[in-house]
């Protein structure tokens, strides 16, 4: 009895996952600065004072690139030393190493130019003519030169990547390397780093081909070492306790991971699915429906969380294939499921809206202080009417006494950035802000684009996979994280099997977003019909 | 009791494996001509009359190459149709399709030339100078053009290979395609086919990186569908019955396979290992040591069979990594094992010796009929003394009455090519032939090279992996297959861990073959010491 209680306490003990990207990175690539001794090697910690110097690691890298391929033991030893050494370097040293890799192991341009000059001397006209013996010889020479050119155009770091990929544990190191590279590029976006990243990304895409990935249903019977990773990497709705974890793996729930043979024991990406009677419009319905409904009564598979575990594999769309395979699998196993939908966060909404508000305030400020004449043309390219007249009025009304003389935009900005999100604690403010926040959210999702694609990364992900933007749900995630990302609003994207390819295709070619009427009506020219939601 | 007997009979019922390459190919890529309906599709059989026409399959191929990547369902459907369709084509139609692939989806040379001319206009000197903003821009342009050039230099069939690789079941189709290509190239070795093969091979090497392959010990507990494949693919010592199969998977034996996630349920290559008290010098000791010795008494792990299941993966050295990993695994699991050796066939010996004998006979014949003067210079570049005087004498003696007046070479040739290998049934002849056949075998293995490497493919395989040529064993495989390959002779290659890399390295760079004294002495200048073996 006592043990049981002990277990129950354990099951409910709060757990902390490494929820954000930086933390994940630290977990996969231990830095001496942050966590003492490196977990993957026996090296001493310390920044510049650690036993492994940048020079050593660079030398192992050089050896790994230049060594003859038949010296496989030395090659293996060098790759091993490099891997351990790299992981024990500080952020700054890694940055230096990446710069050296990009700069010193680039394309050999002298050789490329020589080969090109030779190639251009070929009398192509003679090949294209036909079928004599000479043409055969010429064609053979042509193939040979093209092959040499392909080789010469490969940067020298290509060999390094290929060798690491063939080495046990090397794929993981490549993922860490790319994660570091992406961090460096956030600050220093140099052409040579971009070229390094683009080359590495291209390689990773072919090595992580969906046919190589294994779909595995993660259950409570899986090893603790794997389950622990699920807790650590869950990036959408943090797992609070063992009890919460078990809930997500038992009746009415599914968790599927994509595994690669070269990175055993942890999924590259995993998805959590809830089997429900209908499309859930709030995350509480998913996380806390205790007891769950009977699986045979479920009609909807709701994808409520997708987490990728390797920041270094960003922009390699593993999720698309994962969703596709999970839909196939669930359809086959549970024929009563007819709707496949998500309940998704809108990670970019708040940031976008606050920057919009800020720029409007700035413009208003400039207008007031300097150029009065622009008052007449209030709908210029710079200044826009973010709020409807009704919304402005009720915002000003709701805040009377507090922000006297301020504009609606100013009040809205102050409310949304208030300490501890005070506005969420007042029913009055919630009622007032619902209408503008929902309408602007629809606008953000449907109209705000970057290079023709939805600005919001989660929206872009599901839309490019062929989903429909189905519902926008008010206070669907009232957790602190939910408020901070998107004022608690969440979205249902629906995967309708018959429309997937068409949607993906039209989104891809024209940026057109397929959305339900309930979402589209937010963008209709307003008369007085803003309560329709 | 009756059931038990029934089972025993079943266990000993002879089985037929698809032992040779052609049979394997037919098994992996069912041709309507050979086995009726295709096993992988619902197509009707028949050669040109089958429902799927070459035109259809070509069209699916064209679509698979040209379709936009976001139309993933159509792409999948096309790849699926192509795969089924290709497998249902006759040999001749497949040949036509491969020619079309090589010719019509080659490099776009017009585009390559345009890009090269642009590239050569870049002022490289300005990039190399240093660190101004302009150089950055120039460098960025340079990277962009190099990337475009790399893309342009890819033949158009590259996309096809990549898409097939990403498609479930596609890797297997690529292996079948290459197997067919290799067969076509045996007769028609055109530059465009060679270029296609070399490109495909390069791709397969990166996709079949050893880190992607999973080592699995195959046991009697594995599914019958897997064990059936072991029987079918065992290429060295055919498995005769279920009893024989179980023997190879139970105490004192190991069988390890390399599996790729994209080709589930069958190994790409597998190796059979016997745990013995010493290095076995005859295959009978391995196949029929009933009861086996206790594993804890074993000191030698003998690799007695390596079979690759995909002829389309030839020249992709999976065996090297397999042996390396198996050695590591066995060392860890059974510390009493200290010797790692093989008992290997010599597949090219008989063919080589018979062609040597034939050319010597032809030379002798020419000499006799035409130019008498050459009798004085019997050791010219063309004519050589294959047999030692002693050997000649005893061959002539042993055959007296049968081949009166014939030369020793002529008698040897007649004996070795006699119907049903009659010579193996006479102790006298066995005694006489042992000495020359063993000596010439050592010469074949040590001295006969092709491009600096051992002519014998099995020798080349183990030598490049770093093994030592340890023993040549007389009548080590007296089966019909053993006699036909190498007059019953087999070789022990030994993997000495401390010498592996050095051996591999010197063999790679100079072609030097590390051999034991017992083998080397066969090549010593003869006095009268030829019985030393």
TrEMBL record, chains A, B:
Report domain Malonyl-CoA decarboxylase N-terminal positions: 144-207
Task: Provide any one GO MF term from the record.
Answer: malonyl-CoA decarboxylase activity
Protein name as annotated:
Malonyl-CoA decarboxylase
- Spans annotated as Disordered: 27-47
Q: Which GO terms describe its cellular component?
A: mitochondrial matrix; peroxisomal matrix
Write out the GO biological process terms.
acetyl-CoA biosynthetic process; fatty acid biosynthetic process; malonyl-CoA catabolic process
According to the entry, every stretch annotated as the Malonyl-CoA decarboxylase C-terminal domain falls at 212-495
Highest taxon of the source? Answer: Eukaryota
- Alphabetized InterPro entries for the sequence: Malonyl_CoA_deC (IPR038917), Malonyl_CoA_deC_C (IPR007956), Malonyl_CoA_deC_C_sf (IPR042303), MCD_N (IPR035372), MCD_N_sf (IPR038351)
Pfam families linked to this entry = MCD, MCD_N
